[in-house]
Amino acid sequence: MKFLRLLFVSMMIYAIPVKAQKDTLSLEECIVGRYSEYYPSYMSNLQWVKGSSKLFSVKEKAGHVIKDANSLKVIRTLDLAYFQKLGNDLSEIKKVPYIQWLSPSSFKFKYKGIEYHIEKDKVVSSFALPKGMEDHFLSKDNKKIACSWKNNVWILTPEKKIEVTKFKQKGIVCGKTVHRNEFGIDRGLFWSPSSDKLAFYKKDETMVADYTLVDMMKEPQQQVNIKYPMAGRKSHQVKVGVYNLSSNTTTYLMTDGDPEHYLTNVTWSPDSKYVYLAEVNRDQSKLHWNKYNVATGEKMETIITESDDRYIEPLHPLYFLDKDPSKFIRWTRKDGFFHLYLYANDGTQIKQLTKGDWEVTAFYGLDGKDKYAYFQATKESPMARNIYRVNLKTSKVEKLDDSAMGWHNASFNSNFSSMIDVYERHDIPRKVVLSSVNSKKKEVTLLKAEDTLAKKEIGEESVFTIKAGDNATDLYCRMIKPLDFDPNKKYPVVIYVYGGPHVQLVQDRWHYATRWWQFYMAQRGYIAFTLDNRGSSNRGKEFEQVIHRNLGIHETEDQMKGVEYLKSLPYVDANRIGVHGWSFGGFMTMNLMFRHPDVFKVGVSGGGVVDWSLYEIMYGERYMDTPEQNPEGYKECNMTNHLKDLKGKLLLIHGAMDSTVVMQHSYKMIRKSIKEGKQLDYFVYPTAPHNVRGKDRVHLMRKVSDYFIDHL
Q1: From the candidates 690, 696, 699, 711, which is the catalytic residue?
Q2: In the chain, N or C: fewer CB atoms in 10 Å?
Q3: How far is the C-alpha of 211 from the C-alpha of 542, rounded, in Å?
């Protein structure tokens, strides 16, 4: 009986309700699940029906649902049966394809290597896309496709293939991106507004030395030669050709000056008679916007000239007005921040449309009446992105979304009377809002995603500012505390760093744009910390250009301000601070480990630049000049010269097939470590390019995590 009474009491105790425990995130969930089962719900293939002011469509289970933007009434649904009935061997299609609207009654899609164009529910044309074809673009009249195939330019019509260029020599490449995708270059083919001419890049890299990558997974190993122009050495040479479909002739623009200069931001004139090029000298100190006659290739005039003592980096084409093609909008950083300017087509500046210590970060277009230009900007905060329009006559700027912070991406209907705003904030996974541009009262929420981490236990996040190394500039920081945080305990810290140009890590997006690996480390008892130092993106020219000729110096100075802040916290274990970064972040990891050896106990550097003289010309010379022009800078920024000061544990990781930061960087560091008698750890991903992806990335981040767990 005594035993039964004790059993009953025990059962009563365990029956008392307790607070439900949340699950933590596994490493696999942090790396793969972030973009699969934990990815916030979204509206697939959401788009305005092109040419329509009131119709939009979204891909749902039922098919492509077309809705009226005013009433949200379903106009029609393009289901699987619809596609199967189109003919042209589409009867076997098994799932609804992604589409792109071309007009209110036409769209295109790809199936089994064929691009189909549908007009009023009938296949009106189809294009057989060559196997292995790279970039391809549809002409403005929707009747022709330009593509790069086997390093040459082709034009496809439903009836034939036109071989525009016929170069067979190795090292001549046409129709692809050039200048290593710098200067905003993301394509090599440019249709004229009239659709009867095609501008394209022709790249001659025969003068650039071969660089050998070795695929050790082949039997025997396979040598892969790439063209990699290193700082201070020979660069490839670029021309712009213009093919005229009417005459079947090609004219090359007669650019002059250094043959290694940069031809960027290709822009057609509205009448298709001229091409404008933003040409930058190899030193990247001077910019000329030149106008060319495409019929003769002759340079007509230089309409804009700019220079900069450090560097100049044009990133955007010209945007001609819709009703008055004698004017264009230019998006430039010439006053220190990226802003919009109105120009006459002879290069005379009419007015600056936007101004202030903030940056325009996206340009959406003009309303068709030349009244407003629509854009995204950091006007509220460097951490935020909001949507605006500016009146071209008065320069008055008007905010179109209804929140002070967060991250907004907009798409507009054909006459810019309505917008779809895809929005997120640190506490909002995703929200899709349809609104009237002229009336903020007319707003409908199309989607509000659930918090996919609601049932997961993650560390407490905070975002704040500290002063930079100049003791004046605010730097944005993000910190994640360990689970079950106890302010009376001491915790180790893992800093995640990038620190280089064109990247911003701390943003007012869902969970402040945290990499979920940092949640994983917080679960394991670490404070996770990130800081955007001077040199990183979206804070203006002076904020970025402080790094010129001395990469890693001011960036490290700012990161150490973050360390000072961390050390001031009573719950930080100052003897256990680690750092991890990839690419420029790998370079920064070495800077921090070597320049402050008594501070950092453990570091993991992935794909990091060791010696900037081994990095590509376009990026490297912009920030460092050439090794001949800046020998002391290159010496100071060469990480092998600082290895002797290392005290902590350092792991280097590299992808064997990395064509961005070639493996020679880490090899040089390993060789120097042998000479210096320094012990480094090293791990190679045999088939990986610059970024390790897929399942390999789970292995990578486990390797990184375990290194901190074992040594920090």
Answers
A1: 690
A2: N
A3: 35
DSSP reduced 3-state for 325:
coil
Q: Does residue 205 sit in the same domain as residue 68?
A: no
485-526 confidence digits (pLDDT tens): 999 999 999 999 999 999 999 999 999 999 999 999 999 999
Count of domains for the chain: 4
CATH code where residue 651 lies:
3.40.50.1820
Residues 603 and 681 in one domain: yes
| Same domain assignment for residues 237 and 374 | no
Catalytic residue among 583, 605, 613, 705: 583
Q: How far apart are the two ends of the chain, measured CA to CA in Å?
A: 54
> Can you give the residue range of the structural domain that contains 560?
461-711
SS (H, E, C) 577-590: EEEEEECHHHHHHH
Q: Give residue 648's pLDDT.
A: 98
Token pair in block for residue 232: 């201070």
Q: What tokens were used for 246?
A: 């009417």
Whether 583 is catalytic is: yes
Final residue belonging to a domain, choices 425, 451, 477: 451
Q: Is residue 690 flagged as an active site residue?
A: yes
**Residue 347: inside a domain:** no
| Alpha carbon distance 185, 204 (integer Å) | 17
Q: What is the DSSP string of 280-292?
A: E-TTS-EEEEEEE
Q: Residue 190 sits in a domain of what CATH number?
A: 2.140.10.30
210 among known catalytic residues: no
Q: Which is the catalytic residue, given 508, 558, 573, 658? A: 658
